[in-house]
Amino acid sequence: MGYWVYIYLTIAVEEHLLFRWHKGFEWDDWADKSKLPVGIAALTAFLIGWVGSIVSMDQIYFVGPIAQMIGSDSSDLGIWVGSSWAMLVFPPLRWLELKKFDR
Length: 103
Fold this sequence. Notes:
The model has no long low-confidence stretch (mean pLDDT 91). The protein has one domain (3-101). It is elongated and about 50 Å long. Helix 1 (3-19) crosses helix 4. The chain has 103 residues and is an all-alpha fold. It is 62% helix and 0% strand. The two termini are 31 Å apart.
């Protein structure tokens, strides 16, 4: 259940630190849909991170293929793999989204 929280947090922190740190937040823009990000980059990064979590999770009900490669005493790597995959793909996707939609 907690995998998605770390992926979401990773994307939100990257958005803040990499793309908004010098601009700040214009709180009135939240009421204008045309000034908000489209969200394609965030959704894509989230889904890629989610897949990373699934293939590396080690739970009683499911053991992913990456977790199986580690061995029978493997640890649950879902949070770390999912977050790192999202962390790696979000910045270039967000940059492309900014170039395409300019918001």
